[in-house]
């Protein structure tokens, strides 16, 4: 990730990217000693952008009833972090019944 120049030197400068404008800016001149600037590069195909590496669309699930709306061919469930152990087990059982993939099943005993 490219950072704004001189953010490591000055506390009040935000690290979000801004293009260097200075006449003698080493970052603008793309010197090896300076941080790299963002560049246009390769990109994933449009139909794959935003998908989980497994190829499924990520859907956040809070309760077992949320699994009924999922398309098991294109969508996978991710259990929310605030969900407790008992409800997680219920979600995993329901996902197995409906043949829905769970991306973060955790420790299954």
Following the backbone from N to C, one meets helices and strands in this order, namely: EEH
Q: Percentage of helical residues?
A: 10-25%
- Strand content is 5-15%
> Kindly, what is the distance between the CA atoms of the first and last residues, rounded to a whole number of angstroms?
39 Å
Per DSSP E runs of 2 or more residues, the count of β-strands stands at: 2
Low-confidence stretches: none
Whole-angstrom Rg: 22 Å
Mean pLDDT: 91
The secondary-structure class comes to little secondary structure
Q: How does the major sheet shape up?
A: 2 strands, parallel
Count helical runs. Answer: 1
Strand order in the largest sheet? 1-2
Estimate the global geometry from the Cα principal axes. Answer: elongated
Word description of this protein:
The protein is largely without helices or strands and 109 residues long. It has a domain at 46-98. 13% of the residues lie in helices and 9% in strands. The chain is built from one helix and two strands, in the order ββα. Strands 1-2 form a two-stranded parallel sheet. The protein is elongated and about 65 Å long. The mean pLDDT is 91.
Brief write-up:
This protein has 109 residues and is largely without helices or strands. 13% of the residues lie in helices and 9% in strands.
Using brief descriptors, characterize the structure shown:
single chain; 109 residues; little secondary structure; two-stranded parallel ribbon; 2 strands; 13% helix; elongated
């Amino acid at each position: 990730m490219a950072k704004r120049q001189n953010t490591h030197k000055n506390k009040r400068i935000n690290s979000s990217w801004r293009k260097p404008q200075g006449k003698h800016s080493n970052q603008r001149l793309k010197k090896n000693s300076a941080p790299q600037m963002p560049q246009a590069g390769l990109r994933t195909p449009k139909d794959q952008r935003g998908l989980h590496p497994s190829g499924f669309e990520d859907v956040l699930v809070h309760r077992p009833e949320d699994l009924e709306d999922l398309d098991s061919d294109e969508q996978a469930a991710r259990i929310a972090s605030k969900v407790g152990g008992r409800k997680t087990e219920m979600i995993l059982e329901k996902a197995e019944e409906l043949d829905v993939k769970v991306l973060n099943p955790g420790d299954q005993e």
